Queue: 2 jobs
Job 1
Amino acid sequence: MSSTTLEQAPRPFVVRSPRQEAWRRFRQSRLAMAFLGLFGVFLLMAITAQVLELTQIHDGDRRGLLYDTSLAKQGIEVAPGVPWPEEATPPSTTHWQAWLGTDSHGKSVLLRVFHGTKIAFVVGTFGALLSVLIGMTLGLMAGYFGRWVDEAVVYVYTTVASIPYLLLILALAFLIRQGGIAKAYAELTILGFQPEAYMSLGLFTIVLVIGLTSWVTLCRLVRAEVKKVRELDYVQAARALGFGDVRIMFKHVLPNVFHLVIINFSLTFVTAIKSEVILTFLGVGVDKEPSWGQMISAAKSELMKGIWWPILASGSMLFLLTLAVNYVGDALRDALDPKLKR
Amino acid sequence: MIPFLIRRLLYAVPVVLGVAAITLALFTFAGGDPAAKRLGKNPSPEAVERMRKEMHLDDPFAVQYVEFVRQIGSFDYGDSWERKAPVRRIFLDGIGPTLSVSVPAFLLGALIAVALALMVAWYRGSLFDRTMTVAAIAGISVSSLIYVLIGQWLFADQLRLFPIWGYEYGWRSIYFVALPVLIWIVLSVGTDLRYFRTVALEEIGRDYVRTARSKGLPERKVLFKHVLRNCSIPIITRLTIVVPFLITGSFLMEIFFGIPGLGSQLYAAIRESDFPVVKAFTMIGTLLYVAFNILADVLYALFDPRVRF
């Protein structure tokens, strides 16, 4: 009884910032929290895979990476004196590298799937980052300055949106790989640092293609929202105080439309890792290191031979990560929507 | 209405011209040399020079652009570089197989999505609603390639219900398009269902629904008469906007299943730097997209009396 009365006692009035309020609402959904946790696990895996890879690369030499060396070459044996066959073997508990089986070259599916997580995160993060940067900046400028800037931005995104999407992606990917951009990228050096050694051309292509093609939705949304926000009193006040346009745009207006950016980031993240699979299958994606797209593409011939474990492993990973991000994105949208505030 | 249409059509002109400029610029400045590609391995510089002249690749950008715009206006895109046939022929050959996949998939998919959305709205908040919501989000989280590979393996390889690959014209085509159509529907229903459900639930929360209920109308009447009518506006506009994708959207299915439609032709053309074909298909896709967007706006205005031009 005493606990009931305690709960019924008037609570002190709590003031939460919008961010705390959103987090509180997000936390209420247990499934969303579970998926956020799952996303965290994937992120940790990606970081681990990246660190492991970096410790194995010396002076840009990519040979001898563990995921690219068959079990036989590593000296792993099925039974004493019998080396591991250099062909596809189903999952077994004999050695930890074979827990998810080996692929048709006798390489560990576990290690390759693990490394695929890194690829997914590189593609997702950088692709979405580029797309969000373009969409956010153009949207902010169009909404804030209005007039000819607005008209120019609207014209550009209407034009880009009018090109059939898949065609644009594929044509861009082919052109980037064949033309001068690929060459320039291979020779690019920034302060003695060569991006090509860390992000292969295939990865770079996907990032660029996703970034350049999927910013329109965000740009539209941000533009519409900024148009409303810029008329609010506090923006007028900031202008009256003599703050510059850039400062008002990024410090006063942007925080009010940033929820759109976050949600769109999660959507583009998913688009990017799904596009990796398609582009890799069509031969313009990742080619120098194992990715989920590669493993799924390889299943085209493997499945008919009864080799089901590589696609099961890579497909499940892709599915779980996509599902987690999709669900968290949905929950974020609900939590950040001021209309649902209660 | 008429002034609105004229304004929209006039605005479409710079958009189409812009797409033409982007397409041409991409292939001129970013791509490899199609002339060298045509001549095979290690061509002599003189041969490449002659080939470039023959293909009008060395013309100034402005000249190429004007020629391209003329082609768009006259619907005559010249001959393919790779296959010695007019682009028009390639397009007309491909359109049949493409539509035989996309039209049934589009119609069935839309029907299923709308029906499911109404059911979900009817049983909103119930276990069925929550199951469908989770199923939809799980469904769109699977890569399209997984659907294709598993579908081919299960239905074609194991059960031997459909062929894995290829196409035949005429009635036998049903046999070949069944699996791609099925997979297309699975791919599209998740996204559409989520959208239509949001639309339906938004309408259900409005004042007129409360009024209809409070005057004693049965829930069935409220949902199918009042709510459905108001939902039909966003549903119809959305379905109109996707019509152009009946031409370009079956791209992946055609490549995966070896259907000789526009998608396969286009994919081959991109790989072979067959620029006339890519140019033509891009512009046809763009023109359709622009046209159907205007049509969607007009429909929206016709159905919704609140919209003023």
Note: Chain A has a mean pLDDT of 83.
Job 2
Amino acid sequence: MSLIEVKNLSKHFKVLNRREGLRGSIKDLFSQDYRIVKAVEDINFDINKGEIVGYIGPNGAGKSTTIKMMTGILKPSSGILLANGIPPYSNRIQNAKKMGVVFGQRTQLWWDLPVIESFKILKNIYRVDDKTYDTQMGMFNSLIDLEKLYPVQVRTLSLGQRMLCDIAAAFLHNPKIVYLDEPTIGLDISVKAKIRAIIKELNKNQEITIILTTHDLGDVEALCNRIIIIDKGKILFDGPTQRVNQLFGSFRTLKVKIFEFNENTIPNIELAIKNKFQQSKSIHVKKSEDFWTDITFNQEETPLREVLNLVMNSFPVEDIRVVEISMENVVSQVYDGALT
Amino acid sequence: MIDTLKFYFRIYFQIEAQYIKSRMQYRDDFIISTIGMLFSSLTTVGVFWVIFDTVPELDGWSLNEIIFIYSFYLLATNPMQTLFDHFWQLRIHVLKGTFIKYYFRPLNMMFYYVSEMFDVKGIMQLFLGIALFVYSSNSLGLVWNLKQLIYLIILLLSASLVIISIMIVAASASFWIYNSFPVMDLAWRLREYAPYPMSIYKGFFQILFTYVIPIGFISFYPSQVFIRPEELTPIIFLSPAMGIIFSFIAYRVWTAGVNSYTGTGS
Amino acid sequence: MAGLAYRSGYFFTIANNLIYMGIAFYLWQSIYGSREIIRGMTFNQTFLYLSLASSIFVLFQTWSDWEIGFQINDGSIITWMIKPLNYQFSIMASALGFVLTNLLTITIPTIIFLVFVFKVTFATGPGLIFFPLALVFSFLLTSTIDYIVGITCFYTESVWGLSITKDVIITFLSGSLIPLPFFPENIRSILEFLPFQAIYHIPLNMVIEPNQPTSEYLTMIGIQLVWVIILFVLSRQYYNKAVKKLRIAGG
């Protein structure tokens, strides 16, 4: 039986339609006008022991809603959800004993206490026996040098150090599943590398299943053997990482800022690209932040310098940036059938 | 069952011991907060003193009786103040979303939430309460035997439960209302009216404060047992029942709030 | 406008105030018992006095001291100090905004209740004309005191403790909890020298005794003005000292 079973799972929210302005606020006080938001709609997947699954999608896609259902915060509106054989919502404490959670920016350690005290308290909360405790702590010491941080108060740790401690703490009681939500956000490359290393090691060592939500494709590349992409409450893709990697690893997004941006700019760019690169199916032009335009393309089809040349020669470019493909753009590519 | 209790006790002591140790670093804050709290309590006594300077008795009650009722109230409020202080911040955790962390541990959520804070200055309030209690008790010539002491403990406990329950219900409003601070403020103020003799109210207010928001049971009715034993009315024996019923209600409201929470502001 | 988005919150604040008035009503009725006048005030006057006091307290509840405290604690006060605006004035301006909202949503409904439900009677007279002016000065006084308390957070993290102490001292010594006439003579004379009674007792006195000679009222306003100036000067000096300390500490 799989560790996590999800069948036809949905979650709907009733949201008050707020009205604008002063009059609106007063009317709201008596309003019964709600709309239904389908945060998660009829999703299916099974996750097995030992997998590291990347659960990715743009903001508002339904990622955190799904995770909140799996960790026992939200009750599903319909469908089946089982973790370790039991529905998380109705068995919150039971479920919590076998799970670890790290929620990005917010620490779950005790803010004012020295790091080691948090671990000692957790030892008691999860009823970890001495032997397991010593083994785990020993492992943390060797992997990330946790000993050095023992006497330091959590509130004085740097973000990177805190993340490492939070991650270690999530694994202390040898849980079956660990949920990591944005574990590397805001961190520099060297800390990211350390975090990825410890996650990989703990998964390999103890066959702990890991579900990772992230916006950072580097995390996905380094850690996940399987990726599930979700957008607007529905699953767009569920398969091995290599496929996504193969397809998107070589993608780039060229961000350009054109002088005197107006409503014709984007259609003009699209036209120019269509004319020059007829055969290419995977170039997308999209408006991004104020006055910027994103041109996303596959370098293997259309080399960067050709795209750059076209744009520079045909348009009055004020500023440019080249970045790796973002989650939004992966998703829009997936919508357009890039992975089918 | 006993096992679970032992489990929770152990965890609680471990957490609080560490917490208190780390809070003692903030000497300044401790001193100023304690002063603020003492001033606040002493001001109430000051108000009584001025009132009794102008009239000899309040609805049939003497100054010392009023002080006795007030000290009982301080002792009954103390557990709420010291142990359940974290509820004042519930609204912030709920709005910012940091409340979800309490779902993740294999612990009862209210226990976990409550254990995060221990108000050290409450200990000073306890001393003040005891001091006033002893003073007024002596002035009134009260006699304390075993039976009286047992009554005292039961009644103090019931009163504490009533206060704690009221505050929990008020704090839980933050699960449904955006700016719920006034709700807690209201509950807190109501509690402040507890030391006044219930006999001054007629009709609507009397029913309100006895059965609906039972601040009467916080200190007035229980105090009767000691200062006017010959005038006992059946109402007074409701105290323990009130404590239990309201705890039950409070827990249900909290649970409803926790179950309906979605992790972001309302 | 942002205030109104806070749904039910305002109902509770009004309820708060009304319940206080209800309690004060019964309490003081018991105190008066069968007496007509205590220390020169009738029950009607006392009740009016205390209800207005409580309404004014709610009116002036702007949490400026907390705001300043938070800004100091999280460091954002630096951004305010860099701006060309005078910090004190900007705090007072935002406090004023709160006061106006409070006036509309809390104070006026409460006064309506006072007149129609509790059936309190007002005498009329020149005092009532001076009342709004006195309130303006009262506002200046409370916001300056809030400001001073807020700045004290430069020296300590304890916002709550300072704020509570301030509230307690002011409400007790200003006549807000017990009308000033009720205090014993010796204590009363001391209280008259403190700025707190200028915040509550002076305007309240104008309402319950509106028929005193105009010179009396002018004197009262004068006293308020004097305190406004004194406290204002104190607050500037205090701010400068505190800021100097901040600069020395390296910010």
Note: Chain A has a mean pLDDT of 86.
